[in-house]
Amino acid sequence: MKQIKKSLPLSCPSCASPLKVTSLACEACDTTVSGSFELPLLARLSADDLQFVIDFVKTSGSLKLMAQQLGLSYPTVRNRLDDIIANIEKIEKNIKIP
Ligand SMILES: [Zn+2]
């Protein structure tokens, strides 16, 4: 059977509000924990934004190096970081990211 890699849905497909975790399961012993848990801030970024943050940390925060690695101009990478900062601030204030 083909393994499908599912990405974590971040917002409600019906009303676009941020989703919460309500159930966690242990695959080893089948224990399930229920409740209402906020996703960690970084997990609430889009997959693309999160990858940028990971790459940013791995280059020790060098936008110059990131621009080289991504084949983009420094201002483009700088703008991308500014967008992610704005998205993080929206998440902190619980504003929907369009
Ligand atoms: Zn367990």
Could you please describe the fold and organization of this structure?
With 98 residues, the protein is α+β, with helices and mostly antiparallel strands. It has a domain at 40-94: Arc Repressor Mutant, subunit A, CATH 1.10.10. It is 40% helix and 11% strand. It has helices at 47-58, 63-70, 74-92; strands at 21-25, 32-37. Strands 1-2 form a two-stranded antiparallel ribbon. A hairpin with a 6-residue loop joins strand 1 and strand 2 (32-37). The chain is extended and about 45 Å long. The N and C termini lie far apart (35 Å). The mean pLDDT is 91. Residues 26, 28-29, 31 line the site of zinc ion. Pfam families: DUF2089, Zn_ribbon_DUF2089. This is DUF2089 domain-containing protein. Residues 12-40, 45-89 form the DUF2089 domain. InterPro entries: DUF2089, DUF2089_Zn_ribbon.
Helix-strand pattern, N to C? EEHHH
- Secondary structure: number of strands: 2
Overall mean pLDDT stands at 91
Class by alpha and beta content: alpha+beta
Helix content: 25-40%
Based on Cα principal axes, name the global outline: extended
**Rg, Å, rounded:** 17 Å
CATH class of one domain: Mainly Alpha
Low-confidence stretches: none
The CATH architecture of one domain can be given as Orthogonal Bundle
Number of helices: 3
For the termini, the CA-CA separation is: 35 Å
The description of the largest β-sheet is:
2 strands, antiparallel
Bound ligand species: zinc ion
Strands across the major sheet, in which order? Answer: 1-2
Strand content: 5-15%
The fold-level CATH name of one domain is Arc Repressor Mutant, subunit A
